[in-house]
Every structure is written in structure tokens, then in C-alpha cells.
Amino acid sequence: MNHSVRFPAEWEPQSGVQLTFPHKNSDWAADLAQVIPCFVRIAEAISQHESLLVVCDKVAEVAPLLAHCDPARVRLVELPSNDTWARDHSGITVLEEGKPVVLDFMFNGWGLKFAADADNLLTGRLHAHGLFGEATLRRPGLVLEGGSLESDGQGTLLTTTECLLSPNRNPHLSQQEIEQELKHWLGVSRVLWLEHGSLEGDDTDAHIDTLARFCDPTTIAYVRCDQPDDPHYESFRRMEDELQAFRTADGKPYRLVPLPWPDAVYDKAGQRLPATYANFLILNEAVLLPLYNVPQDAEALRITQEIFPDHEVVGIDCSPLVLQHGSLHCVTMQYPTGVLNFK
């Protein structure tokens, strides 16, 4: 463990959020008309609470779409990108002696599944443009995506073996060696590994942000499948057993809050899509919750509001996002206070 480094929790004060906007040369080409309004809604919701950094293919085309965002809080930067999953290609911020450091881990398209050459360069290019203020940029030389990490801000990391032990990410490292790298770069003192749970249609190899989320240091919201005939049932039952066995740093059981299991969502080809209410984004004073136009949306809103009583919970229709096998948290990356610099 690196005692000078701390990986802040998502609910800690933020300077802003990054979006990487869809364009005709991304995988969204066939669905741009559907997905752009979803990105605009997310952008508008974020800009009501904090700054918004938008990486885009053409500023002149995207700027008019964001006309209802607070212009003082929005910065558009024209840079090439392969795709739009900012959670995984963006920098991951830690605090070193209380000062922000942006870690530019390598992004290889979720284990070499998709092209990522431009996405992998984005964080370095944003730093070169001065968008991270005085924050230091470091490159650990490790393949790692933000969606695979959940921090309680107090030294505990939650993740999955399926993702971090993927042979196409860091095949030269054992689980123990990966854990040591996480402790060094993120300053965590312990890692909780989930060995079960994954969503059909998920390209990420079971990113934790689709499955289980820290809501405060002692609370974990998680996906629970309550339908025995659903192919997810057994895997998620075993994941629930693992979560029940986990303990906080002081040895107490976590408060576990199950999230509703949404009705199955399919694409035109009949493939099941990874709809999950765990993929919410915590902002300053608000939580953005993905919805899917299914009956369980209302219950998900109610439960999320109970988990975050001091936040405004904003539901956003993310049924277009799951067409490309991700959701709301996947297309965003928050930066703690002291990082984004729009001066």
C-alpha cells in the first residue's frame, strides 16, 4: 500500500465530468439519431451541477446540441476518438499528499476486442491541452479501465476477477501481482474480489460498475436476479453470497441494497442487452440513474432515492446506450475537485 496516495470515492466533491461524444466514425454510426439525444440529456443534467468536459469529433457540430447547458460550465475539445466509453478510456484520479494526480492507464479496447488507438491517447492529449490544470499525469504501464474499479475512499477497492485477470489485459501478472499494482498506484489497503456475476451482452468482462457499487463506505448496492428461470439467476445468487461474506475494514457486514432486475431488453437481432440499474453516476448533489422503459424503472428510482436521501435522483432513458452494450456510468468519468481547469 502506498500511504501517500488515496483513491477518492465517487461521492466526494467533483470538479466535473467527461463525456466523449458519439460521431459517425464510431460504432454509433447506425444509431446516431437515437443516441445523441441521450448524450445531450446526460450533458444537460451534469452541467446543472458541475463542469462538463466534452471530447468531440467536430466542435461546430456538437456545440449547438448543447445550447441548453450552462456555457460557463462546458468546455468542448476537438480530438479524435474511436468510441464513447469515457469511463474506461479516461484518466483515473488519485490524491497524492492531498493533491490530484491523473493516472493514464493503458486502454486496449476491453482486452483487444475493439480498436482503441485514439481512445488510448485521449488522456495524454487532454493533459497536453491544459485541461487538468496543475494535476500531474502519470502512466503506470498497466491495462486498466475505470469501470472495473469501485473505491470506498477509505482504502477498500471492489472489483472482479473476470475482468482484471483477463488474459488479454495483463497476462504477465498474477492475481497477487495485480493486487500489488492496485495497492501501489491507487493507495488502497485491501481488494475485495468478486468471482461471480456478469451480464449477457456485456463486452467488458464483468465490469464492477454493472454489478455492485459502493454508495458510502458501508453500503453496497448490487444487482439481484429474482427470476429462477433467467440465465443470470445462479451467477448472481453466488455473487450475492460473496457480497454477504465481505466485511468492512473494521470487520462488520456491509449494508447490502439489492437493485431491481429489469425486464430483458433486446436489440433488433434478438441479442440480450446489458441493462442494469447499478450503472448510475454520482454527482455533486445529484445521482443520474439509467432507465430502460421497463416496469422496474419506478422501483429503481425509489430505491436509489432511499440510498441517496440527500441527492436529487434524475432518471435518464438509457435504452439507446445499451444498444452498444453499455449504460450511463460507462459513458462518463468524474474528476475530483482540483482537476478540470477551464480558465
From TrEMBL:
Protein name: Agmatine deiminase
InterPro entries: Peptidyl-Arg-deiminase_porph
Gene Ontology biological process terms from the UniProt entry: putrescine biosynthetic process
Superkingdom of origin organism: Bacteria
A GO molecular-function descriptor: protein-arginine deiminase activity
Gene3D superfamilies assigned to the protein according to its UniProt record, in alphabetical order: L-arginine/glycine Amidinotransferase, Chain A
PANTHER family: AGMATINE DEIMINASE-RELATED
Keywords: Hydrolase
Classification of source organism: Bacteria, Pseudomonadati, Bacteroidota, Cytophagia, Cytophagales
